[in-house]
Amino acid sequence: MAENKIKVSIIGATGYVGAELVHGFVNHENVELVHLTSRSFKGQKFSDIYPQYRGVCDIECSDIEYEQVAKDSDLVITALPHGVSSVTVPLLLENGAKVIDHSGDFRYKNLQAYEKSYKLEHPHPELLSSAVYGLPEFYRDELKTANLVANPGCYPTCSLIALAPFLKQGLIDTDSIIIDAVSGVSGAGRKADLAYSFCETDEAFKPYGVVGHRHTSEIKEQCDFLSGTDTKVTFTPHLAPFKRGMLATIYVRPSEKLKSMDVSNEVINKIYSDFYAGEEFVRVLPLKTYPDVKAVNGSNYIEVNGCYDPETGLVKLFSAQDNLGKGAALQAIQAFNCMFGLPETAGLKNIIRGV
Amino acid sequence: MAENKIKVSIIGATGYVGAELVHGFVNHENVELVHLTSRSFKGQKFSDIYPQYRGVCDIECSDIEYEQVAKDSDLVITALPHGVSSVTVPLLLENGAKVIDHSGDFRYKNLQAYEKSYKLEHPHPELLSSAVYGLPEFYRDELKTANLVANPGCYPTCSLIALAPFLKQGLIDTDSIIIDAVSGVSGAGRKADLAYSFCETDEAFKPYGVVGHRHTSEIKEQCDFLSGTDTKVTFTPHLAPFKRGMLATIYVRPSEKLKSMDVSNEVINKIYSDFYAGEEFVRVLPLKTYPDVKAVNGSNYIEVNGCYDPETGLVKLFSAQDNLGKGAALQAIQAFNCMFGLPETAGLKNIIRGV
Amino acid sequence: MAENKIKVSIIGATGYVGAELVHGFVNHENVELVHLTSRSFKGQKFSDIYPQYRGVCDIECSDIEYEQVAKDSDLVITALPHGVSSVTVPLLLENGAKVIDHSGDFRYKNLQAYEKSYKLEHPHPELLSSAVYGLPEFYRDELKTANLVANPGCYPTCSLIALAPFLKQGLIDTDSIIIDAVSGVSGAGRKADLAYSFCETDEAFKPYGVVGHRHTSEIKEQCDFLSGTDTKVTFTPHLAPFKRGMLATIYVRPSEKLKSMDVSNEVINKIYSDFYAGEEFVRVLPLKTYPDVKAVNGSNYIEVNGCYDPETGLVKLFSAQDNLGKGAALQAIQAFNCMFGLPETAGLKNIIRGV
Amino acid sequence: MAENKIKVSIIGATGYVGAELVHGFVNHENVELVHLTSRSFKGQKFSDIYPQYRGVCDIECSDIEYEQVAKDSDLVITALPHGVSSVTVPLLLENGAKVIDHSGDFRYKNLQAYEKSYKLEHPHPELLSSAVYGLPEFYRDELKTANLVANPGCYPTCSLIALAPFLKQGLIDTDSIIIDAVSGVSGAGRKADLAYSFCETDEAFKPYGVVGHRHTSEIKEQCDFLSGTDTKVTFTPHLAPFKRGMLATIYVRPSEKLKSMDVSNEVINKIYSDFYAGEEFVRVLPLKTYPDVKAVNGSNYIEVNGCYDPETGLVKLFSAQDNLGKGAALQAIQAFNCMFGLPETAGLKNIIRGV
Question: Apex CA D162: angle with CA D157 and CA D167, to 5°?
Answer without folding.
Answer: 105
